[in-house]
């Protein structure tokens, strides 16, 4: 990466982290200052975990998980390590969002409020289920070493598309949730009289949108993509001499060095792989 | 495009058109059957133009405008014609959405309801303004022949990114609008008692999301992109013999044939152009 591109990347990364951090902070201030605070009592305090965990896990941590391959100083780390971090962050996000959903169901049950009637809840539950599915499929297809490369090449564009679609839908769901909550609670003074809580929480909504926009920009710049395995170039030129190594590492129980030869093996699937590459936008 | 890819494309295109059409139909049924109908009287009938025009123009027509370059049977048409159709559809969408915003402001004024207090209105007005800006910039940079190719190459990735981000944000805004409206009007029976209108309009929200997902899939498949100008290949090989022609067409008042030589001229800006291409995902 040229120094110029590197500075641009750093600027956007710092902006994304800042705006993401502010989103989490604003959510905390919202529930702690404007609402009743946090607790696990079947009441409003328990409900309040819902926005806090959803914004922290499903927006901020998921956003970071999406751009983690783009950090240039991780390009010397093994692809397997980076995949593990990507999967780990998404797993943490999944756990947090599941707790956030439990908090709401628990609150509704305790207060005898019906479940799952709003558009927010329909889209939200769908997206949580699909997110867990995406996580499991990603784990089995890309992290575990047993999936054939042809399956990986076929699944990669779908994985990238689903991941970004889910992230975008999560943001839409959060904005619906904010809207819903503000119309519920801002009665006196009413939301339409511009009370501080309304203006503050609208601003939170804008911050979340900007965070999403920054993540989308960072992840769709082709020049900021992790380069194809540098080790594999070495491995491949060794293979050129050894001739047999290049056709290994296609399936079965892979060692660490075999994982590194994936890129070499993929050169044989060039068409498919190129499609996968470009679909990362 | 191979026959296989062509069938896949057709299937997805028909699905997108169907789901988009259903979204518009559901919105019409919502306001005509469940709400009070349409009119321009400062009351609820005037407000109802807001969802109808927003879903028709800002969701459906904008979605079609985004994928219009992907229709294989248009690849023999000139790039200029396709740009005009793309710009024309976006202009129609802009006009419809501006009328939809006027309807709401008019309704609010007539009913003495304050303007611009909700998150939906903040995000919605921002997105309308940015959409008009995107339209104007697109018109001056890409449709009119005067912008230098270096500017076009620089602006293209931003144009594509902004366009898709705006489209996604429009969908989020519509979902907030639906949420807001349902909590307003579904009092007796309440939204949480699963009245037919609530279930019906939640379904509308899901349809709009699915439409967005289909448009995003179609537009981000690299194999469904319009091929680089076929005429330019001819023009370029002619230029190979003429040697001078290849450096023409960079700026100034362009004739139609000069527009066709854009692709040839762009080969000189390969790095930038490639970035632009790939950023279309």
UniProtKB/TrEMBL annotation, chains A, B:
Reaction(s) this enzyme catalyzes, per UniProt: Cu(2+)(out) + L-ascorbate(in) = Cu(+)(out) + monodehydro-L-ascorbate radical(in) + H(+); Fe(3+)(out) + L-ascorbate(in) = monodehydro-L-ascorbate radical(in) + Fe(2+)(out) + H(+); monodehydro-L-ascorbate radical(out) + L-ascorbate(in) = monodehydro-L-ascorbate radical(in) + L-ascorbate(out)
UniProt entry tagged with the keyword Chaperone: no
InterPro entries (alphabetical): CYB561/CYBRD1-like, Cyt_b561/ferric_Rdtase_TM
Required cofactor names: heme b
Gene3D superfamilies per UniProt: 1.20.120.1770
Cytochrome b561 domain boundaries: 15-220
A GO molecular function held by the record: transmembrane ascorbate ferrireductase activity
Disordered: annotated span: 246-281
Keyword Lyase: no
EC number: 7.2.1.3
Quaternary structure note: Homodimer.
Highest taxon above the source species: Eukaryota
Name listed for the protein in its UniProt record: Plasma membrane ascorbate-dependent reductase CYBRD1
Membrane-crossing segments per the record: 12-32, 52-73, 85-105, 125-146, 158-179, 199-219
Keyword terms, alphabetized: Cell membrane, Electron transport, Heme, Iron, Membrane, Metal-binding, Oxidoreductase, Translocase, Transmembrane, Transmembrane helix, Transport
Primary location recorded for the protein, binned into one broad class: membrane
Membrane topology: Multi-pass membrane protein
Pfam family, one: Cytochrom_B561
Compartment(s) where it occurs, according to its Swiss-Prot or TrEMBL record: Apical cell membrane
GO CC terms, sorted: apical plasma membrane; lysosomal membrane
């Amino acid at each position: 990466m040229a120094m110029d591109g590197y500075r641009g990347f750093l600027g956007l990364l710092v902006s994304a982290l800042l705006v993401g951090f502010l989103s989490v902070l604003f959510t905390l201030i919202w529930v702690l200052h404007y609402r009743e605070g946090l607790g696990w009592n079947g009441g409003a305090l328990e409900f309040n975990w819902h926005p806090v965990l959803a914004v922290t896990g499903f927006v901020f941590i998921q956003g970071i998980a999406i751009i983690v391959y783009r950090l240039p100083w991780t390009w010397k780390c093994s692809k397997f390590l980076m995949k593990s971090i990507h999967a780990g962050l998404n797993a943490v996000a999944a756990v947090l969002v599941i707790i956030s959903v439990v908090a709401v169901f628990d609150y509704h049950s305790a207060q005898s409020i019906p479940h799952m009637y709003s558009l927010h809840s329909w889209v939200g539950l769908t997206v949580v289920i699909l997110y867990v599915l995406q996580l499991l499929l990603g784990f089995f297809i890309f992290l575990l070493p047993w999936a054939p490369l042809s399956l990986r090449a076929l699944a990669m564009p779908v994985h990238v598309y689903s991941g970004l679609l889910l992230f975008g839908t999560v943001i839409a769901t959060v904005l619906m949730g904010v809207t819903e909550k503000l119309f519920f609670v801002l009665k006196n003074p009413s939301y339409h009289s511009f009370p501080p809580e309304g203006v503050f929480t609208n601003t939170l909504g804008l911050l979340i949108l900007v965070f999403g926009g920054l993540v989308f920009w960072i992840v769709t710049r082709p020049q900021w993509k992790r380069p194809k395995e540098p080790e594999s170039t070495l491995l491949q030129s060794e293979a050129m001499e050894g001739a047999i190594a290049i056709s290994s590492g296609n399936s079965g129980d892979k060692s660490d060095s075999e994982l590194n030869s994936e890129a070499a093996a993929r050169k044989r699937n060039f068409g498919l792989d190129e499609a996968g590459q470009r679909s990362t936008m």
